[in-house]
Amino acid sequence: MAWSSTPIVKPHSLSNLADLLSQGLLGSMSRFSHFQIVEWCARFADDFDHQPDDQIPASPEQALDIADDVVVQWELHLATQYTLGDLQRFAMDDVVLPKHYFEHWLNRLLNLPATH
Questions:
Q1: Per the structure, how many domains does the chain have?
Q2: Whole-number Å distance between alpha carbons of 52 and 115
Q3: What are the CA-CA distances from residue 82 to residues 26, 97, 98, 102 (Å)?
Q4: Which of 31, 42, 100, 101 has the highest local Cβ count within 10 Å?
Q5: How many other CB atoms are there within 10 angstroms of residue 57's CB atom?
Q6: pLDDT tens digit string along 10-56?
């Protein structure tokens, strides 16, 4: 699939995090590249302290940990699976993370305590 290289424009909310992790599960069938999802998660983590109160989950640290883990695992995946030459030959949008990463993150997110 040919993905757009533009950033994902979705508000930084728990429901959008869940939606993007679900998209990641689709691999090459996703509407978004894994790189776009990683970039969104990085912005989510950066903006987390500035979210409106109604978008902050009951366990904000856990949601932040999930978004941070997406970014960290991306970087580790690149560092361990590709050479510098490989990374210079193709676009980041071409990299697809293993499906089980997204399964793990989505399960963690769905098991967070509900807000009351």
A1: 1
A2: 14
A3: 22, 12, 14, 20
A4: 101
A5: 19
A6: 988 888 999 999 999 998 899 999 999 999 999 998 877 555 555 55
And the tokens for 83? 């050479």
CB 3 within 8 A of CB 38: no
pTM attached to this predicted model: 0.85
In a domain, 38, yes or no: yes
Report the alpha-carbon distance of residue 103 to residue 108 in Å, rounded: 9
Q: Quick: pLDDT tens for 53-99.
A: 555 554 567 888 999 999 999 999 999 999 999 989 988 998 999 99
Which residue blocks in 3-98 are alpha helix, DSSP H?
14-25, 34-47, 60-81, 84-89
**Cβ atoms within 10 Å of 2's Cβ, excluding its own:** 7
2 within some domain: no
Q: Does the residue 36 lie in any domain?
A: yes
Q: Which two three-digit tokens encode residue 70?
A: 């997406």
Range of the structural domain that residue 90 is part of: 14-47+57-110
CA atoms within 13 A on the CB side of 30: 26
CB contact at 8 A, 97 and 74: yes
